[in-house]
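Why does residue order matter? Because the sequence determines the fold. Keep that principle in mind as you read this record.
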Amino acid sequence: MRILRIGTPETKASQNVHAALVSWRRGEQVRGGIALIGTKPPGCKRMADAVLVLPRGMLVVVGVDLPDPAKRLEAPVDGPWLADGWPLIDDNAAGAVNPAHKALNTASAAVRSLGALLGEPLTSCAVLAVGPYAGEVITPPADLARGIRVLFPEPGSLREAADQLGGEVFTYEQVRRMLATLAPQEPVLSDAALHEEGFVEHRPGPPAPVREAPPQQAQLVTTMHRPEQERPWWRRKPSWLPFALGGVLAVGAPGLILLAGGGTSTPASATGGPPPVTVDGSTYHRVSADTTPDCAAHAYGDSQPALQQAPCTRLARAVYASKAGERAASVALATVTFGEPDAARRFHETAAKPGAGGITDLVAEGRHWAGAPRSFDDAAFTTLRDGARVRIGQAVYTVGKSDPDDPALTKLATDALHLPG
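Structure:
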């Protein structure tokens, strides 16, 4: 990574941001991209601590000062912040419910202006970097779904945010245009220098379509008891949904866009994909599927460190189209396979707890097709351990609002536990 110091940020997090970025240039942390420290993007009233122009997207890092260090910070973008149980407010921003108001506006304006400069939406993430210190930062999945991360800047936390970016690779010409705006005093970088940082001269064309072989039919179990567990709003997964440039976030911050990729995915249709599967009288058409050996990279909340400590051998995800009565519905299934049953048991104990996170669904990672749901927020949610496998099922109405306690959706989520993964 090439680091360019344009100005000197004055937030309490700025030194930690710089130290984390420097570490990316050493040992296993080495990665491409260009980091601009202390730049003021067009349309912004304040300086960003850093703008990271990475090969497949952009991080806009803006510092948020805390009055004191905190062991635990609860930081919902829409609501009050609590530092070790004490509320935090911004006395200098009228009507603000937390200290992140100005920082979020800065990040939003940066993404909006740079997207307009390139003439296309940016694959990006707003990082609100808190300082001087926060041992644990709790961010609701709904905020992650909008492309916003609140974190204490460390090499690992910033790397995790960067790894979620999965857009098209920036070209030399696009990078030069952004650098001319963000760092006009810096010399123009050569093609060789940009290539070394992971950028490309031209974007590759679309890959040839791959036809997926029909999977072997699995034995289906048609009856089971629904687990009695809560499914509150915390269970919502990070959707990483693309927002159109100039759109408005719920907190009034327009233009934030984040797409994430990973694994291998093969969208299918009801006519060209695998044959439909029937469970307990309902028919399911698989419309997208994904397999990967890296489970932790596609987990969130407490489920992610659980998978980092006890890695799985395979993660299979799929989305099915079905019906709940006369309404179109979508069903997501994640199957996590471990090397031995005890590891599966420990992970299931974590994944089944309310608020413990889970596995990010394919829609949340930017996979779309005709008739895809907007997200799996408010999904009915069920889990099941079967030997060395843990299965997580979710169901939503494809159009309109869903309720986690809807009986019809709960049945579909339960049926999902017996669908081919």
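The longest helix spans residues 101-118.
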